[in-house]
Structure formats: C-alpha cells, structure tokens
C-alpha cells in the first residue's frame, strides 16, 4: 500500500539529510507561470487580472440594463413578459460568466514537462567516440510524423524537454506546451487549447448573443417611449441616456465578439487553429486535420474532452536541486541539435505534403543527421498516441541516407507509459 505523508509546510528547502522528502502539491512545484486557486483545483494563466476585467465588462452593462431599461419594461408588457426580459438577461449573464470561468479556470491541455530529455539508445550507430571523448548523441530538433497520409513537422521543446505532438505549441505567456494550441487569450487570461476550446467558442458566441439581446431591448424601450409620448426617436433617446450608452457599447462590442465568433466558425468548419491560420495558411495547402465540415464540428462539439494530463493536487517530493548533468554515454540536453534561432519563431515552412508525393526538399529535416534508434521515437510516440482520432506514424531520416528514409513505427506499437 502506498502511504503518502502529509505535506510539510515549512520552508526548509534543501534539507537533503532528511530521510523523508518534503512533499508538496504539484501546483506548488509548477514550473509554468500559471496561477492556481483553491489548492490547485483551478488553474489560470498569469494574466488572471484580465478575467476580472472581462467579468466587469459583462456584468456592468447588464446591471445598467437591468436597472434602467429592463426594470422599466416590466410594467410595459402584459402577462409577465416584462419580467421575462429581466429574468432571461440575468440567467444568460450567469451562463456567459460560467463559460468564461470554464474557459479560463481549467487546464487547457497542458502537456507535463519531462524531468529529463529523451534518452537515445547508446548502442546505435553513427556515434563517433574518439579517445577521451564523451559520446555525443544528438536528437533532431525537428521530426516528421505522418498525419492522415501527410507529413507534418513536429519540434522539440527545450523548456518541456519533449517533442511536441502535432498541433501542440509552447505558450510563451504561460510557459507550457499546450495540446491543439489555438492562442493565448488575454481576455480570458488563459491559453485556448484542446480542453477548453469548446467553452471558449461557446463563451464568445454567447457573449455575442448577450450583446444582441441588450442592444435589441434598448431599442424596444426607446421605441416604446417614442410611441407612448408620441415624440421623435431623438427625443425618446434623450429621455433614456442609459439606453444610448448601452446601444453604443453593445454595438461596438458585437463587432469584436461577433467577428470573433464568425472567425472561429470559419476555423472550426475548416479544422484550423488560430495559430495555424495565422502561421500556416492552410488555404494554399491541404490541411491534414480536415474531416469535412460535419466531422470538424463534431470534433469540437461532440467528442469527449480528454482528461487532464496533470494532477495539480498530487503530492510530489520537493525537488532537491537541479539534476546533475549526465557526462557519460547518455544524452545531454545541450546536444539537441542547435538551429540559429528558436524553431518556433524561425521561418520554417509548414510541410503539409502528401506522403505519396513527398520530396525531400526540406533539407533541414530530411537530411538532418540522426544517430538515434527506436528509443528516440517512443517519447514522441507516447505523446502522439494520446491524441485520439488521428492516425500518426513517426518518421525520421537517418544520416547518410538520401531522401526521407523513414522508420515508421505505425500507430499501434506498444508505447511505454510514462
Ligand atoms: Zn514546451
Ligand atoms: Zn497561455
């Protein structure tokens, strides 16, 4: 039976002589820049302040609407219809706020960092060891995987020490690798990724409807004043300055949230992320993730959201000190192949090419020297295998070969569970 000791709350870090290592919650040792609440039950991005701002930007106009417009309309409609106007806006506002918190307060799909870089096999060929030299093993910085018959490049993340699965990207604000990374939304203060994209879209589209609702009933109120007092629309407007403010506010807001809703409807229908749309421009190339409009909507709205890969409340021993560098026969992180700049920001072109017609024109990848064997692949394979619905096979080229001589492990190999 596994017995866990309660976490010590003392600050005696580095007490190496203690037999029982000090236990902390995972969120207390979290290396990303997230902010946690309620003992790690809720995870936000570092810019959580924007969540409160967004809540205010929603609640404040609704409060003005209730106080100065909906309250007046209660008496104007028979059969409690006026009450319904007030009730609907209040309930709908709660719904929008809950969607906002479900977007920003949960794990967006963070891939846990590796404690150590992937270990290549030391028995592989291609390692030249001179006298007095440590074997230098290198992992390629970029690898190729096959997604639905198309070659997709995946990159190594130095921070998380893993090969990012396809569609994964490292958020520079939260400092995490996030699955199906869409973008980091400053308004919800969180990454938008595989686990919260659905809620993000529902939040944005619902906020659009809320704007339309408030906008419409402000005009209803103005028109009722106009008819009731038999006056012009301008005089009616002057009689309700709150309506003027709300009409302008919701008119401006609906361009933002409504435009965002339409943009994301386009992205969903074509199965793109915001990141991919801005970076890769699938319009000119074939998108390996496209399942057709119906399949794409189904993927976003009617598939189960995968469980978080992180247990932020799990008890873990406090890390004593940075691990010493391995000096003999095994992989050292600095031996990851260096490229002039971070690949994420380099001018690496997306490669969505059909496998049948794939040419080794990438140069940087196809001829990249690799001295690694199967073990190189399992790290990637285990990451990718967790992604459901899309068949991946790993493929990387070997030094000295011409063309993309791939070693395909297929999609159903046994994957070591980390
Ligand atoms: Zn990362
Ligand atoms: Zn982020």
UniProtKB/TrEMBL annotation:
Record's keyword annotation contains Transmembrane: yes
Region (Disordered): 354-373, 396-418
GO biological process: protein targeting to membrane
Catalytic EC class: transferase
Molecular function per GO: protein-cysteine S-palmitoyltransferase activity
Composition bias type Low complexity, residue spans: 404-418
UniProt catalytic activity: L-cysteinyl-[protein] + hexadecanoyl-CoA = S-hexadecanoyl-L-cysteinyl-[protein] + CoA
Membrane-topology descriptor: Multi-pass membrane protein
Spans through the membrane: 48-69, 81-102, 199-223, 244-267
Subcellular location: Endomembrane system
PROSITE patterns: DHHC
Entry EC number(s): 2.3.1.225
A GO CC annotation given for this chain: Golgi apparatus
Organism the protein comes from: Tagetes erecta (African marigold)
UniProt comment concerning the protein's domains: The DHHC domain is required for palmitoyltransferase activity.
Domain Palmitoyltransferase DHHC positions: 155-279
Pfam families xrefs: DHHC
InterPro entries named among the record's database cross-references: Palmitoyltrfase_DHHC, PFA4/ZDH16/20/ERF2-like
Highest taxon of source: Eukaryota
Name of this protein: S-acyltransferase
Keywords attached to this entry: Acyltransferase, Membrane, Transferase, Transmembrane, Transmembrane helix
UniProt keyword annotation of Membrane present: yes
Family: Belongs to the DHHC palmitoyltransferase family.
């Amino acid at each position: 039976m596994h017995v866990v000791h309660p976490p010590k709350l003392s600050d005696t870090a580095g007490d190496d002589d203690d037999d029982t290592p000090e236990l902390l919650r995972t969120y207390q040792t979290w290396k990303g820049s997230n902010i946690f609440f309620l003992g790690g039950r809720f995870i936000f991005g570092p810019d959580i302040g924007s969540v409160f701002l967004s809540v205010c930007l929603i609640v404040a106009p609704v409060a003005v609407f209730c106080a100065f417009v909906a309250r007046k309309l209660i008496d104007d409609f028979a059969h409690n219809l006026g009450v319904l106007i007030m009730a609907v806006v209040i309930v709908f506002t709660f719904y929008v706020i809950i969607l906002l918190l479900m977007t920003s307060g949960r794990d967006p799909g963070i891939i846990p960092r590796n404690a150590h870089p992937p270990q290549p096999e030391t028995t592989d060929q291609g390692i030249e060891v001179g006298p007095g030299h440590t074997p230098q093993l290198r992992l390629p910085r970029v690898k190729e995987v096959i997604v639905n018959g198309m070659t997709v490049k995946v990159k190594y993340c130095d921070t998380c020490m893993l090969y990012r699965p396809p569609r994964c990207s490292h958020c520079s604000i939260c400092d995490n690798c996030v699955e199906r990374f869409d973008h980091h939304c400053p308004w919800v203060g969180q990454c938008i990724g595989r686990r919260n994209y659905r809620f993000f879209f529902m939040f944005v589209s619902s906020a659009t409807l809320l704007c339309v609702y408030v906008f419409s009933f402000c005009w209803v109120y103005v028109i009722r004043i106009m008819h009731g007092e038999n006056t012009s629309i301008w005089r009616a407007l002057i009689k309700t300055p709150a309506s003027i403010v709300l009409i302008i506010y919701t008119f401006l807001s609906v361009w933002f949230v409504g435009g965002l809703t339409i943009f994301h409807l386009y992205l969903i229908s074509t199965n793109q992320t915001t990141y991919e749309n801005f970076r890769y421009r699938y319009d000119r190339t074939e998108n390996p993730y496209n399942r057709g409009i119906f399949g794409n909507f189904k993927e976003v709205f009617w598939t189960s959201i995968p469980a978080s890969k992180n247990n932020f409340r799990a008890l873990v021993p406090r890390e004593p000190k940075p691990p010493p560098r391995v000096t003999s026969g095994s992989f050292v992180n600095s031996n990851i192949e260096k490229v002039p700049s971070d690949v994420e920001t380099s001018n690496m072109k997306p490669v969505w090419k059909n496998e049948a017609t794939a040419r080794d024109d990438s140069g940087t990848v196809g001829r990249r020297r690799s001295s690694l064997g199967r073990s190189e692949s399992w790290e990637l394979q285990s990451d990718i295998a967790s992604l459901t619905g899309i068949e991946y096979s790993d493929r990387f080229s070997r030094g000295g070969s011409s063309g993309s001589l791939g070693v395909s492990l297929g999609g159903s190999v046994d994957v070591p569970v980390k």
